Amino acid sequence: MSFGDPNNPYGQQPQAPQGPYGQQPPVPPQGGQPGYGYPQGAPQQPQQPYGYPQQGQVPPQGQPGYGGYPQQPAAPYGQPGMPGMGMPGMPMGYASWGARVGAFLIDGLIIAAVPIILFIISGVMAASSVSSVTPDYSHCPTGDYNCIRDAANSAVSSSTPVGALLVMVLGYALMLGAVIFLMVKEGSTGQTPGKKALGIKVIKESTGQPLGFGMTFVRFLCRYLNGVLCGIGYLWPLWDEKNQTFGDKIVGNVVVQVPK
Predict the structure, then answer these.
(1) pLDDT tens digits, residue range 165-184?
(2) How far is CA 260 from the centre of its chain?
(3) 164: closest CA among 129, 114, 115, 116?
(4) 213 found inside a domain
(5) Average pLDDT over every residue of 232-252
(6) Cross-referenced PANTHER family, in alphabetical order (predicted)?
(7) Domain annotation covers residue 68
(8) Which pLDDT does position 54 carry in this prediction?
(9) Rounded distance, CA 167 to CA 121, Å?
């Protein structure tokens, strides 16, 4: 029978009692004095594992979490006056000179196609009302040029029928209506049918928005300035940094490419 180490006068230290089923006894949490068998105070919340944000903390946007995937920042919509990239319906760059000419031709057909047909009909109706007979110079003395002129004029009688005039007026009315329609479309949406077909759009350089009807009308009037100096204003977009004509620079607009 052993009584411990003879060099230790106090004998062996008593062993901590084993918990039931071989479990270790509970260890009191740090930071406070435990009571008998149970810790005092509210239980501490469990610590989140490494790689997750703590409760109450939200990682800032654009910054990756601890071990998680970085959040995607919101896609930019482009600065005012500067074409954006990649978003549906957003500008993709300045419109080329060829695209602008193509849109102009399509819109020109919309304006003039029907009126030209009406003008042709009106001309045919007016020409059919002209009758001509052989002049009678027998009663004119020799050398009397006034008599000869009067005889020639009396041989030709023409009268423009009312129907031809009405058809001509209708043609001009349709042409004016088509011009106003195109200006309204361009002012409200930035696109006419021709521009929409070619995938280009007119916007205000400072805001990126359509011009509105008033400024679109001013832009229409400024087109006459493009014809000054042998039409060089129409060719100016070929070497201009922003592909602008003289009228575009005066109004402060740019023509950009957009998805069709």
Answers:
(1) 999 999 999 999 999 999 99
(2) 10
(3) 129
(4) yes
(5) 93
(6) PROLINE-RICH ANTIGEN HOMOLOG, PROLINE-RICH ANTIGEN HOMOLOG-RELATED
(7) no
(8) 52
(9) 7
Taking the C-alpha atoms of residue 200 and residue 194, their distance in angstroms, rounded to an integer, is 9
Tokens found for residue 124: 């045919």
Q: Cα separation of 220 and 214, whole Å?
A: 10
What DSSP letter does each residue of the chain carry, written as one string?
Answer: ---S-TT-TT-PPPPPPPPGGGPPPPPPPTTS---SSS--SSPPPPPPPTTSPPTT--PPTTS--SSSPPPPPPPP---TTS---SSTTS--SBPPHHHHHHHHHHHHHHHHHHHHHHHHHHHHHHHHT-EE-----TTSPTT-HHHHHHHHHHHEE----HHHHHHHHHHHHHHHHHHHHHHHHHHHHS--HHHHHHTEEEEETTTSS---HHHHHHHHHHHHHHTHHHHHHHHGGGT-TT---HHHHHHTEEEEE---
Domain assignment present for 61: no
Nearest of 219, 153, 154, 149 to residue 183 by alpha carbon: 219
Q: Closest Cα partner for 82 from 93, 73, 72, 66?
A: 93
Q: For residue 20, what are its two tokens?
A: 């039931």
Average pLDDT, whole number, for the chain?
A: 75
How sure is the predictor about 191, in pLDDT bands with cuts at 50, 70 and 90? very high
Mean pLDDT of 253-258: 95
In sequence order, which residues have a C-beta less than 8 Å from that of residue 192 and are 6 or more positions away? 103, 107, 110, 182, 185, 186
Taking alpha carbons only, the member of 122, 118, 123, 121 closest to residue 171 is: 118
- The domain in which residue 181 lies consists of 97-257
